[in-house]
Write a structure and sequence with these properties.
The structure is a homodimer. The first copy, chain A, is mainly alpha-helical and about 140 residues long. Chain A is built from 5 helices and 3 strands. The structure holds a DNA duplex (30 and 30 nucleotides).
DNA sequence: TTATATCCTATAGTTAACTCGAGGTCAAGT
DNA sequence: ACTTGACCTCGAGTTAACTATAGGATATAA
């Protein structure tokens, strides 16, 4: 089973522009072409794009993802680099999760704060908090 | 207790450029100035900047954060908008957490994959997986 | 009082990641 | 043969969020 660029685009929720941009940036050296020059995506190409999206979500810039793609071309000699890279990505995502949890804590606090204020009709209900009880209003 | 712009910058891990940029974008209408024109940050200003950073981490663009800041100036009449905004942010962050968990799942899978490959010295140990057993390599 | 560090504004430049337009090719249907 | 829709390349444009530079004011310390 193979796919056209627009099929892959809708499969991965990207635009064809984005896919061609990735290609230009060296993220898709394995995608083959028809005699007429059209891209033909194999199942493994789609899977690799999935990994690319995953690395992007982990906060990795496209330039760095290209290095990983190059390592793939170089075979077993780059196994260590690739392992190290994913280990590093894992740590990065763990950190993002912690940050996101802190963000969530403050937002939930604000939801409570505004819920109470709305019920009272005024923010003044919170006027006598804020004496070192908690860090945020 | 008040702070200079560079004190606030290091407190929040931002640059003074960024803070002035925020000011220009309308995120700091409450910060006062000395006779000579220098910004003087109060404790409440720093707290508000904390909230701003939180909204940024939740994926909110600066233009939208400015709306929130304007609502603050308008007092109790905007309590509902502010409550709705934080409720919406909460949903956005929950979604981000789910996405990040999916990212983590794939990355952990890749860590295992490369650990095994590294121990075997070749990626070929994984050659007979990939028959619908799991979605990703 | 003079040096130096920190501040100011205004404006221009940078970076990443797209996004689009022009002009042309290719392949399936009529 | 011809139209139509999807594809192609190349290069320019866009957007958000900074980041930096120039030129100048302010304030503290020797």
């Amino acid at each position: 089973m193979t796919y056209s660029i627009s099929e892959v685009a809708s499969k991965l929720n990207l635009t064809v522009y984005t896919l061609r941009y990735y290609d230009k940036e060296g993220l898709m050296p394995f995608v083959e072409r028809t005699a007429g020059g059209k891209r033909v995506f194999k199942e493994t190409d789609v899977e690799l794009l999935n990994v690319i999206e995953c690395l992007k979500s982990s906060g990795m810039p496209i330039k760095d993802i290209r290095n990983f793609i190059e390592w793939l071309s170089e075979g077993d000699s780059t196994l260590q680099q690739r392992y190290d890279m994913f280990t590093e990505r894992k740590a990065a995502v763990e950190k993002q999760m912690e940050e996101l949890q802190k963000t969530m804590d403050l937002i939930e606090h604000k939801c409570d704060y505004y819920k109470t204020a709305l019920e009272a009709g005024t923010e003044d209900v919170h006027k006598n908090e804020r004496m070192g009880k908690s860090v945020f209003s």
